[in-house]
Amino acid sequence: xxxxxxxxxxxxxxxxxxxxxxxxxxxxxxxxxxxxxxxxxxxxxxxxxxxxxxxxxxxxxxxxxxxxxxxxxxxxxxxxxxxxx
Length: 85
Hints:
Glutaredoxin_subgr; Glutaredoxin; disulfide bond; alpha+beta; 4 strands
């Protein structure tokens, strides 16, 4: 199974929605909460090529984007392929 990382903040509805999708698929993921670990914000922005909103999602070190982008991958039927890689 793929390595999934997600940068989040508390009380972020998009973060919650993204995590719910991953949970529904039974995917284990590493969550980085940048509101409780602000030192992770700069590395997140660098990894996300300037993306500063949350969530920022990575699958096998590939930047997927945010919640909307992950849901688009699910709708297109390509998310499972990325997760299985």
